[in-house]
Design goal:
A 4-stranded mixed β-sheet has the order 4-2-5-6, with helices on one face. By secondary structure, the chain is of the alpha+beta class. The protein is built from 4 helices and 6 strands. It is globular, with a radius of gyration of 16 Å. The chain has one domain (15-137): Phosphoribosyl-aminoimidazole Synthetase, Chain A, domain 2. Helix content is 27%, strand content 23%. The longest helix is centred in the first third of the chain and has 13 residues, at 38-50.
């Protein structure tokens, strides 16, 4: 397609970030990489298994402008892109800032962010507060994800 960009692979080991969370005494309730099905699918799995609503803030999810633009051109949603160097950690109430500080001390955790919160039990759903002020339901990935070479 002749598209030039400087997007780099996000493939990275997660062991250092996980180790720092555990060594820092962070009370982790759930943790996963977001390789298969992306963030949207992983959070749907968390919501389903916990019976809780996951509430995300789109503006807090660290996606570079280049990746957003490239996904827009190709009609892809970054929430469903596999990320081999990213993880999600659900921590105890009040533990988000401590977890963030631990993750940011690791080599690959510089862009770590608090992207949302766990809502009340009883509604297994993932809701995204959009940057324009609306709310969107984020369902799991249906069908096949992008082909993988690893």
């Amino acid at each position: 397609m002749g598209i030039e960009n400087t997007i780099r692979s996000d493939c990275a080991p997660l062991t250092e970030m996980v180790g720092r969370l555990l060594a820092g005494g962070v009370e982790v309730h759930a943790m996963r990489d977001v390789t298969r099905g992306g963030l949207g699918t992983v959070l749907n799995e968390f919501a389903s298994s916990s019976g809780c609503r996951m509430e995300l803030d789109e503006g807090r999810i660290p996606v570079s402008a280049q990746v957003k633009g490239f996904c827009g051109i190709l009609g892809l949603d970054p929430l469903y892109m596999g990320n081999e160097g990213k993880m999600i950690a659900v921590v105890a109430p009040g533990g988000a800032e401590k977890a963030l500080a631990c993750m940011r001390k690791s080599r690959y955790g510089a862009d770590a962010a608090v992207i949302g919160r766990v809502g009340p039990k009883g509604e297994s759903a993932v809701l995204l507060k959009t940057t324009v002020g609306g709310t969107r339901v984020v369902g799991p990935l249906y069908g096949e994800g992008l082909p993988r070479i690893c």
